Amino acid sequence: MIHIKNKGLLHEHTVLLNDSSNLSNRDNKHLYTQILQGNAESPMISYLMNLNKQGLNDFKSIAKFNELNISGMYGDSIKYEEIIDETTIFLPQKKFKKIKESFSSIILKRRSGRRFHHFEMSIDTLSHLLKYAFGLSDVSLPGAREGKHRMYSSGGALYPISVYLYINNVEGLSNGFYKYQPGSHTLAPVDTDTINTAEFFAGSGMDMLNSCLSLFFRYDINRNYVKYGELSLLNSFVEVGVMSHNFDLVATSLGFVSCPVAGFNKNLIETALHLDQVNEHIIFSSICGKE
Ligand SMILES: Cc1cc2nc3c(=O)[nH]c(=O)nc-3n(C[C@H](O)[C@H](O)[C@H](O)COP(=O)(O)O)c2cc1C
Q1: How confident is the model at residue 52 (pLDDT cuts 50, 70, 90)?
Q2: Under CATH, which architecture does the 56-289 domain have?
Q3: How far is the CA of 262 from the centre of ligand 1 (A)?
Q4: Across the beta sheet with 257-261, what order do the strands follow?
Q5: pLDDT at residue 153 above 90?
Q6: By mean pLDDT, which of 46-55, 211-220, 254-263 is the weakest?
Q7: Which residue's CA is minimally distant from atom 13 of ligand 1?
Q8: Domains of the chain, residue spans
Q9: Over the stretch 224-236, which tens digit does the pLDDT of each residue have?
């Protein structure tokens, strides 16, 4: 544990209060000082301070994954992971239209939007949005028979994050949860009990009612822990940021706005999606609509 006297960490967020019995009933600035003084634990700081620590187990696992090209095998087996049955929705994919707007104008225009006007997104637009944000690219994974890279980078090409959508206003789709399946470019509907969508982002000012859709990013720990150990969490948080930003840029290019949202109701969404909440977590979300 950190001790302020040893580390000499004095800056604008340090409050010199030495009452160790009063650990947490003030604010985060006070709590932060208590952490630096060694009176309170911070899982976040412990994680950061141990980020580069690698054990023999890590070396063995990373070497095994690289030597056996396990990511290539994962890429080849994507079709066995996806559910194709009479309920599966095949997104239109005859030809993906090129995004005509220049990259510089898209990136200059991007900003977060939280209020929308009621607008039905076309199924074509949804198909483009998902393909360009999260779909398979044209590039083959090294050593794979059929496996492809995706539109975003992934630590070890293990793709531990999957994308769920809550469809709120999209042409031809019933409102509800769907899982995006990038290998087949399809949506698998998820059966849920009646759900109060107003609670998804409770208190955060998101215009759920007029949105076209929301996204929920699911992280499966086993997917990358068996290679990277404790480093997996950092990789997954970065990956979800990369994915979310890809989505923001593609949404902007198609004339929509989106907002990355950390303030989502984790327990509500995970319960609705039947996640085990031990290996399977929702770690981030996003909302999208037309202004
Ligand atoms: C990791 C992350 C989490 C965010 N969480 C929220 C959130 O919970 N609620 C919200 O209204 N905006 C959220 N945002 C959006 C930021 O408020 C927004 O990006 C910031 O104000 C800068 O504005 P801009 O995106 O329009 O450039 C989040 C953004 C990021 C990158």
Answers
A1: confident
A2: 3-Layer(aba) Sandwich (3.40)
A3: 8
A4: 89-90, 186-189, 176-181, 161-167, 213-220, 280-289, 257-261
A5: yes
A6: 46-55
A7: 261
A8: 4-49, 56-289
A9: 999 999 999 999 9
